[in-house]
Request: fold
Amino acid sequence: MEFKKVKGKGPTRISLDMLDPIMVPGSPASAAAPITVSPAGMSCSAELFLGPDENTKVATSGIRNFVSTGAPQSVSFPVTMPSPGGFAYHVYLDVYANGYLIVAYIATEDVIIPSGEVGPITW
Amino acid sequence: MSEFASGESKTAVAPITVKPSGLSCETELFLGPDDMTKVATSGRIPFVSTGVSQAVHLPVVMPTAEGTYHVYLDLYVEGILIGVYQAIEDVVIVPVLEFPHLNILRVEGVPFSGVGVEPKGTLFDFLQVLNMYSCANWPIAWCLTPGQPEAIAECVGGAIYSSQSELIAVLATCLEQAGVPYPSYPQGGGYVTYASSIASHWSCDEARQEVPVAYLAEPITMSTLRGISLTWVNKTIPWQQTPGIVYTMWWMLSYKPQFLAPMYGPGFRCLGVPVPPGEPCTVPITELWAQGYSYPGIYDGAVTLVITIDSYGQGLGAYFRIKNLAEIKPG
Reply:
C-alpha cells in the first residue's frame, strides 16, 4: 500500500507496509511505517487514521511518539478496524515535529471493511 | 429440522449480501457435529459481491451415517474469513432402503424410522395354506371349520420357520388341539399324515429367506386401503437413449395384514418413467389392479419393482416390505 503526500514539506512519499487492504470489522491490526525525519534528535509524533475524509476519524492509532534519527525508523500504528463493515475508508498518516504538523499523507489504496449477511437457507 | 436420506445430493440456496460490491468472495456450507469437523461440505463456492442479496447455490452430498448434524456456513472476502454462521435448525439423516441400483427414501413424504430384514413367509401366508383345507374348499370329514385355521396358525407360530419335520410335528399337535376330527387315512398316521399334507404346501427354507424391510414409526391412517406415493432415487439404472431398447418400470404394491385376516388386501400399481441418477423421484402407486376387503387392523406393504429392458431386466428390480404402512380403525 503506497502513500502519496497530500500537503506539507518533508519526505515526498512514505510506503505503508500492509498485509491486505481487506480487513475484518472490529479486528485489531497494526501498521508499520518506515518514517524518516531530519535532523536527528527532534521530538516527533505520528498518527494513522481511517475515515471517509481527512477530517473524520472513524478509527485511529492515536498519537505515536518517537525521536527523529535522521534515518528511516519503523513506527507502529495499532488500529482497531471500524465496525460494522460494508465500507471502504481512506487511510491517512500525519507526522508532527515538536508539535507542528510537518507532513500529511493519504494511502493510494483504501482499506475495505466488508460486511456479510446470510438469510434463511432453503434446500 | 430438515430430514434427508443418507448419501442424498441436495443443494442449499443461501441469500448472501456482501458489501461493498465488486469483492471476490467465497462461501462454504458444511455439516458436522461441531464447526471444526466437516462431515459433508459444499467446498468453497466463489461469487462476486454485488452489495445486495444474491442467491448462492451450495451443493452437498449428505453424510452416509444416520444422525443429527449442525449446519455451518463460512463467508470469505478476498480469502479472509469475515463471517461464520450456524443454522438454527439441524439436518437429520434418516435411514433408507438400499439396493444395488436404487434407494427407497420415503413413503408419502414420511422418512423411515428404520430399515432391516425380516422372514419372507408370514403367519398370514401360512393361514392361506390352511384355508385350502377349510370345509368351504375341501368338504371332507376332517376339514377345517370356521375359526380353526386361525387357531391352528396361532398355535404353530414360529414353527413355520423351523425344519419341515419339526413343522409337521408341531402342526400335528395343533390340529389335535384345535379339535379337528381324527383324520382317518387308509394308510394310517392320522394327524401326522394330515400335517404332512398341509406342510407340503409350505417351504420352511423359503419362509426363512430374508427380505428387506423399512419401518414407519406410525402407520398411515386410512378409511380404506389405498395407493401410496413412494420416493426413490436412481443410482445406476442404465436409462440410455439407445434405439430399439424400451425400458418399462412397474411398481406394484400389495397389502399384507399383520393380523390373521380372512382375505388379502388390495393391490395397486404404477408405471414409472426413466429418471437420471441422483435426483429423488416420487411415484404414485395408486392404480388399483387387485381388489380386496379392508378389515380393521394394521397392514404392512409389500412392494415389487420390475424393470424390463427388452426381454431382460433381471437384477434391476427390487422387493421390499414397509412395516406399519397403514391402519384401518374400527368403525
